[in-house]
Amino acid sequence: MNNQKQQKPTLTGQRFKTRKRDEKERFDPTQFQESIVQGLNQTGTDLEAVAKFLDASGAKLDYRRYAETLFDILVAGGMLAPGGTLSDDMTRTEFCLFTAQEDLETMQAYAQVFNKLIRRYKYLEKGFEEEIKKLLLFLKGFTESERNKLAMLTGILLANGNISASILSSLFNENLVKEGVSAAFAVKLFKSWINEKDINSVAASLRKVGMDNRLMELFPANKRSCEHFSKYFTDAGLKELSDFARNQQSIGARKELQKELQEMMARGDPQKEIIAFTKEEMKKASLSEQAMISIIWTSVMSSVEWNKKEELVTEQAIKHLKQYSPLLKAFTSQGLSELSLLLKIQEYCYDNIHFMKAFQKIVVLLYKADVLSEEAILKWYTEAHLAKGKSVFLEQMKKFVEWLKNAEEESESDEEEAD
């Protein structure tokens, strides 16, 4: 019997080949930067040639890994250090956005370069948006001319849908806002954006990402008023943007006021208090009586849980509106306000199907309560009604309108006899 222990095989001295994909490649943009800079130096100011070079280079160079380096070079000529300064130890090119001519046409041509590049290499989309956000945070590190070019380019890219309006959040950075950099940059950006599209397109893009109510943040807290915003952008030639911001603030104020009114009604606050509060708020927000009566109507109708049965909801509505008729009366001192209320009632009864048969009864109640005049009702009936449910509501009102006309004629003949 062999008592000698068998030696276990060892792996000493044996080498195993590592598969290439398992190796962790070191992040080193130097070679990548040199290749891009060399290509841009050769193509020079010919932006079509630049686009072709970038298209072809994507097959040989690692755009996915070095996206930030690529965009830094195209914008600033080299890799950017934190704060926006160019890294001293790296190769750079004189052919980039920041050294180009400062005019809209050149910026539109540059926008096309980025557009073609991102269409060709879709995976660069997210990295490009991140790059723009970063560049906006670095604004203080750029010259005024560089900022202007970047602002024009950003406006064009926003108009073309290459980037989302959410990038504007970078402009709300406290340091940029405090020194007035954000507001000045926004002027150039919005001018080029509106030049490419129009204010409605700009508004839609801002709303999509919830930026429509944040534009005031371009200014420090002590200057964050509608008046200051309006004056600043109107003086800069952007009255459309001023009007849009004013309108947005007005919408915000209306929503807040409506919410407050509903809460007062839910608490059962006296109507005298509600009227006094509403008049004060109306003055503060510079709202017209027509706008105010629409808000009051919506608040009144939203402050109650309506019965789902058509035959019961009319009775419930009459009782509820009778209670709030003094409030409605306080804000219908003008013919236009009465007409606005009539249109709101028509719209409400059409949009809420259980109220379709209640329209005439509501109008008659408000006529008896001196909220609506016969002039307003006749004007609504003959020419000022909406198309919504028109045939149904005009038919409902036919007999009452005839009665109003007869009463008016009788009144006129009585007056003549008295004379």
TrEMBL record:
UniProt organism field: Seriola lalandi dorsalis
Family as reported in the entry's similarity comment: Belongs to the BZW family.
Name of the protein in question: Basic leucine zipper and W2 domains 1a
GO BP, sorted A to Z: regulation of translational initiation
Pfam families attached to this UniProt entry: HEAT_5MP1_2, W2
Superkingdom as given in the UniProt entry: Eukaryota
Entries under CDD domains matching the protein: W2_eIF5C_like (cd11560)
Residue segments, region Disordered: 1-28
PROSITE patterns: W2
Domain W2: 247-414
Biased composition (Polar residues): 1-15
GO CC terms: cytoplasm; membrane
SMART domains: eIF5C (SM00515)
Keyword annotations from UniProtKB, A to Z: Activator, Transcription, Transcription regulation, Translation regulation
